[in-house]
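Technical annex B. To support the medicinal chemistry partners, we prepared a structural model of the target in complex with NPW, based solely on the information shown next.
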Amino acid sequence: MYLVTAEQMRRLDGETIQRLGIPAIALMENAGRVIAEEIVALCRRRGGEGCRSAAGWEDAGKDAALAGAAFQVSADHALTLDNAAAERWFILVGKGNNGGDGLAAARYLRETGIAVTLVYAVPPESLSGEAALQRDAAAAMGLPAVVYGRDRVDLAECSGILDALLGTGAAGAPRGAYAELIAAANSSGKVIVSADIPSGLNADTGETHEPCIHASVTVCLAFLKRGLLQYPGAGAAGHVKVRAIGIPASLATNIGVQVHLLTPEVLHAHLGVDLARRRSPDGHKGTYGHVLLAAGTLRMSGAGLLSARAALRAGCGLVTWALPQKLLPSIIGSAPELMLADVGSNEDGTWRAGSVSELLKLSKERDVLAVGPGLGRFEADTEWLRNLWEGTDCPLVIDADALNVLADADYKSWASRRHPVILTPHPGEMARLARITTAEVQRDRISLAMGYAKEHGVTLVLKGAHTVIATPEGQAYVNTTGHPGMGTGGAGDVLTGIISSLLAQGLNEAQAAAFGVYLHGLAGERAALQRNNPAAIIAGDIIEAL
Ligand SMILES: NC(=O)C1=CN([C@@H]2O[C@H](COP(=O)(O)OP(=O)(O)OC[C@H]3O[C@@H](n4cnc5c(N)ncnc54)[C@H](OP(=O)(O)O)[C@@H]3O)[C@@H](O)[C@H]2O)[C@@H](O)CC1
Ligand SMILES: Nc1ncnc2c1ncn2[C@@H]1O[C@H](COP(=O)(O)OP(=O)(O)O)[C@@H](O)[C@H]1O
Ligand SMILES: [K+]
């Protein structure tokens, strides 16, 4: 599934209207219809109708067939509602095409028997184009209408609100009557369905203006908007339903859309990942690759252990953990499946820059080098990392403190590598890498990740809720597996182990990063299910749930 910006959406609309010759009003009709269908589905769920109607039709069909009846008629189930008389919806209508969508939806809802009242944010005379046609059609159908600020509007009188105030054409924070209506809708306690995006949301970045609608359901039209997947916007959108309105998905490739929602289909069809992770019947530990991990200090020995164990659980054949000598006594025996490589250490258990020669030697017999979890900082660590960057002939995964080393270095001047580099920063590490604040990182995670990956020629995994994976070629994937319970020390170390393990098994960097993030999130969800309270998840649970 593609993710688009408002500007890309305008081009997709334009292509459909101009190149395919589909009139804009037809797209708006489709939009109104699918919005109405989702509202009917919602009314049906809360009215306790469940699937009764659908099953009822099926049963009737079966009965008729058994009785030998040849002729059957069925109605439009998606726009049929048994308890329509119990519903009264207010349709908040803005001046642009988003308002036009709401007006079209209002007509379809009225047809189901639901009472609707149009609440215009602006005088209806100010609507133009297709929205004006919809205004006139609604008026011709006799739909009651009021104008906010001129007529009395009491949102307490309705059973639900359709927010069709602002869509992808909105600029800046909602003003005047729009702001007042949004605030009133939010405090009404009524269920809110948003047309396309919640009004007040930045459709590209996911920033929420003050005020912004808090929807239960957002009926997103044609293509998923980037802002619906990025927090805080993702929180304001509620359940997002993407519905087709007649704009062909193939147009997205024509206009160069490069961001995808990370689904099993995208992993399989777009990235070529074998989701079944088949292993060959005659495979052996040598078949599945060997990870070399440089991680851990006395103070943070657990980070290395978590990465190493996660790598094993993610399926690679062998893991060698290179660690400071002072750590060895406490680690021996803690994970018998691991191989340990003593690379010496300072008196206090920290890494020595001289360990690089041993690491370079070890890397020759390994398929991947992962550096960083629990590494700490040490003297001449920049030169140490530069030697690994320039001297290893295998994919490199860089996490945690090794990212902070990179952030302090001018690594664009380092020799280019034959094998890929994957960086796995959390927002704080990303802020240091990009030399901006953490708040600036979170403002538009997708654009930032894409820009950084392209500029630095790395695969970037920007972690946090809805992790973004960006490739140097300009593609990006947004992951939605995972769980807030994963906000626990060491969860990122587990991810580093998983991604390294997949690389060792022969996946390319985009596959390993995307599939690794996806599996890590699934394991987090499974771990949350296994605990009575998700707050009880610890990083080791994620490994065991892999
Ligand atoms: N064929 C198509 O294009 C299709 C489009 N579709 C639908 O159209 C939506 C996009 O429609 P759109 O481009 O007309 O913009 P939209 O979001 O309705 O709002 C713009 C209006 O709001 C106003 N306004 C702006 N900012 C404001 C603010 N901060 N505070 C207050 N007012 C503000 C601004 O008025 P102005 O300030 O210029 O007087 C302007 O008139 C899209 O999300 C989807 O729902 C679908 O039907 C599929 C086919
Ligand atoms: N709310 C959340 N939803 C989904 N995943 C989350 C959430 N919070 C954290 N995570 C995931 O947990 C991991 C935390 O990583 P990180 O911050 O590096 O932890 P640590 O440094 O302790 O290992 C990341 O993969 C992140 O995406
Ligand atoms: K809206």
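Notes passed to the chemistry partners:
The pocket of potassium ion (ligand 3) is lined by residues 98, 163-167, 194-197, 199 (CB under 6 Å).
The mean pLDDT is 94.
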